[in-house]
Write a structure and sequence with these properties.
- The protein is mostly helical.
- It has five helices and no strands.
- Helix 3 packs across helix 4.
- It is flat and about 60 Å long.
Length: 95
């Protein structure tokens, strides 16, 4: 009985917040949308994009899950999970 009461309370709160958000017509602030356009924002965006590409080259399964088949032939030793092993396997220096 307590679980049902708790579930109903949480649902009611969620619905109240949802209705309030729709009524107030919440939109992103201008500063939030323009942060990417600053030099720091552009550098951060480029850094995150480069880190994502590095992750895709180290673990090709992540690329395949996204539908990106560029690294489909680069499967290697994923049992160890060690980044050095993954890089060595990609470079071909792992025997």
């Amino acid at each position: 009985m307590k679980k049902i009461t708790l579930l109903m309370t949480v649902t009611a709160l969620f619905m109240a917040v949802s209705v309030q958000a729709q009524e107030s017509n919440i939109s992103p602030t201008p500063t939030a949308t323009s942060q990417r356009e600053t030099p720091e924002g552009k550098r951060l965006f480029a850094l995150l994009k480069a880190a994502d590409e590095e992750d895709l080259t180290l673990i090709p399964q992540n690329a395949l899950m996204r539908g990106d088949s560029r690294f489909a032939g680069d499967f290697g030793d994923l049992i160890s999970g060690c980044p050095e092993t993954l890089k060595a396997n990609k470079d071909g220096s792992l025997a």
